[in-house]
């Protein structure tokens, strides 16, 4: 079977920028960050108090009385985003299961870095701090990282491949890339793919404090006065189909996923490598069959840490050559925070929305240029621009890199 072009026919998102696609795009276009005081955990003893939480989320709006008891917050987010994405495809009305003939040809591939560790954290407090003798009976299924993929499969009656990839902050991009290749090669006819995360529990926050990479204020990627990343939560999901099939049934096409590249730095557990990141970008362009000059926008990994941003700047220059002086680059983490295993999914949705609306989201909270980050970083205000191809970067601890290439619909 010849390789098939892959269309994105559904998108769903829940993040600090909003509870659905429209709310998220309004915030991205306005350059309006969702970063504020953390309310989901007592952070009074931590060196940072801000995060990018999903505000106004009420699980009872999405789940029946005891249904939510089975799912950690990260898995709930995965299903909420998947419902929106599937609904937009027209493959299923509301929350109905897919047809039996289709369900066996659908894959669910998700990414998550910490999974249900918030639930695990509660269990540790109950046993070790409070001296309890038992934990919640659903602690194991709520903590498993594949819970998001499992609840999506159960919701829609999907009987094809379903699994979760955990590669730290590249998890979602690795998941989406695998889904691309499975649809392209005819292994499945539809894939629901993305990532989800909910890291706001005291134990996880304390661990991040120890890393000394979290900003005490806000996230300022590529700005000379940046002080670190800001943690975020949420989920993003895409539905992928063969382009020919999507057109034949008159589906809305949000964009085309044309390439996926990955690499390993093989150098250091936490310090990024410009060469490793550049290799993943080159591999994504090679997979997409495009040259560097075709890329009009890069949604950067852009964490806002002192080390990452200049390293990524160097990587973009290595991968794009002289064209790096012309390409527009921004970090939407400046608005929705660093979603860890969900980051690539949030940014994939942002990238597709940018291509579809002919508006590139800005790097928010930007104060002053840094000579080591000498790219066109779209500071503070969105920019109207018609772009055909874009890259979306994700680079993870452990030196694991994953890059997606998108084409305007």
Describe the structure.
The radius of gyration is 20 Å and the shape is globular. It has helices spanning 21-30, 73-89, 100-103, 117-129, 139-143, 147-156, 171-184, 202-211, 243-248, 274-288, 308-320, 333-336, 343-357; strands spanning 6-15, 36-37, 50-51, 106-111, 162-165, 190-197, 234-242, 255-264, 295-299, 328-330, 359-360, 383-384, 389-396, 400-407. The chain is an alpha/beta fold. Helix 2 packs across helix 6, helix 7 packs across helix 13 (343-357) and helix 10 (274-288) crosses helix 11. The protein has 13 helices and 14 strands. It has two domains: 6-248, Peroxisomal Thiolase, Chain A, domain 1; 259-407, Thiolase/Chalcone synthase (Peroxisomal Thiolase, Chain A, domain 1), CATH 3.40.47. A ten-stranded mixed beta sheet has the order 5-4-6-7-1-8-14-13-9-10, with helices on both faces. Strands 2-3 form a two-stranded antiparallel ribbon. Strands 11-12 form a two-stranded antiparallel ribbon.
